[in-house]
Amino acid sequence: MDGIWDTQLKIMKGVLIVNGIIGVLAVFIAKPPMPFLTGLLFGTMIALLNFRLLSLTLNKAVQLQPHQARVYAASRYILRYIIIGIVLYISVKAEHIHALGTIIGVITLKFVVLQKELFNNKQYFKNIFKRKEAE
After folding, report:
1. Can you tell me the distance from the alpha carbon of 89 to that of 78, in angstroms, rounded to the nearest whole number?
2. Cβ contacts of residue 90 below 8 Å, gap of 6+?
3. Do residues 22 and 108 make contact, with C-beta atoms less than 8 angstroms apart?
4. Where does the sequence pass through the membrane (predicted)?
5. So what's the pLDDT on residue 30?
6. In the prediction, which pLDDT does 97 show?
7. Which of 15, 40, 64, 103 is 20 to 30 A from 109, alpha carbon to alpha carbon?
8. CA nearest neighbour of 109 among 1, 3, 5, 19
9. What is this structure's pTM?
10. Tell me: the pLDDT tens digits for 43-52?
11. 32 preceded by a cis bond (ω within 30 of 0)
């Protein structure tokens, strides 16, 4: 369980670092910067919340019977997407939150997960580029 928590913390720190860098760049690029920064913070918080909810869902689902786990995981999946939909709707309607900042805050998590867990895996790329004859 500690390995899972360590991975979650590593990904959360990565998201905060990447979005911090994006926020600093936004201060110089966005005019005015506060709505973009508010949207970025809003999207980041929701992305991290959804990531944690996903972890809790998976931890509980593995303890359930297969049919119960399927129903439970599907219902939580829908709930997480409803949350994202509400967040995006709020960011589009609110004048003090920039929708692009919210979207960037939400999707940054996906890029950090790919970078930390997939692109750092050399065996993954070796398997992709392995010749068919070698199998």
Report:
1. 16
2. 42, 97
3. yes
4. 12-30, 36-59, 71-90, 96-114
5. 87
6. 93
7. 64
8. 19
9. 0.81
10. 999 999 999 9
11. yes
Contact (Cβ atoms closer than 8 angstroms) between residue 96 and residue 38: yes
C-alpha to C-alpha distance for 46 and 42, rounded to whole angstroms: 6
The residues near 73 (Cβ < 8 Å, ≥ 6 apart) are 57, 58, 61
Question: Residue for token digits 């970025």?
Answer: 40
Could you identify the residue written with the tokens 């890029």? Answer: 111
The mean predicted confidence, pLDDT, of the chain is 88
User: CB-side exposure of 97: number of CA atoms within 13 Å?
Assistant: 19
User: Long-range contact list for 24-33, CB < 8 A, 24+ apart?
Assistant: 26/101, 30/98, 30/101
Q: Which two tokens stand for residue 103?
A: 């979207």
In one letter, which amino acid is 34? Answer: M
As given in the structure block, the two tokens for residue 27 are 């201060």
Residue 91 contacts residue 42 (beta carbons within 8 Å): yes
Closest CA to 11 of 108, 88, 76, 82: 108
- Single-letter amino acid code for the residue at 45: M
Instruction: Tell me the H-state helices in the chain.
Output: 2-29, 33-61, 66-93, 99-113, 122-128
